[in-house]
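Consider what follows.

. . .
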Amino acid sequence: MNMQSSIQENEAIKIVTPEDRSKVIAILTIAFTTCPLLRWLYPEPERYLRHFSGFLDYYAGDPYTDRSGAYFESGDRGALLWLTDKAHRDDARMMRFLVGSVPESRRTETERLFEELGKYHPKEPHWYFTMLGIDPMHQRSGWGGLLYRYGLAILDEAKGLAFSEATSSSSARLYERLGWKIVGEVQVGSSPPCFPMLHHPS
């Protein structure tokens, strides 16, 4: 085992609480600055910084109260958020926010993109892994896989079906290595491709 692997195995991961909200938002704001989907929605830096925290609120629900998220306690390297099968996102409310915050020229394509992604959501109760972000200073070093395995261990204990969306082919490959199955590819107009995925209980 090399030094990096040893450090990662001993890294403390903390379940999020309401007190962690600002810290987690800061981590994810930095992590998604090069996300193809987020930067298609918010191409200008000012627009991205103005709307990203709102996007999180509408897209990821309230993981802080629900304790449905985790982050690296030391160094704030990354964070993972999910919705359990007991939580429900208000998609109509999210769409109103998106239409009001993206460039006017992308409103129709944004609506169509999320409508198409919505068709892949399982009909039965399921967990929804919404956000996995690693600080760019620490990307491609194994931190994302470590954090995701932590979340999947919780999922496996609950024996739950899970859904998620990868916003790049590289992140889709990471998910596949962690046992996810890509069930489609969605691309609308000028949008980047997104990859809906399922993870069945082991």
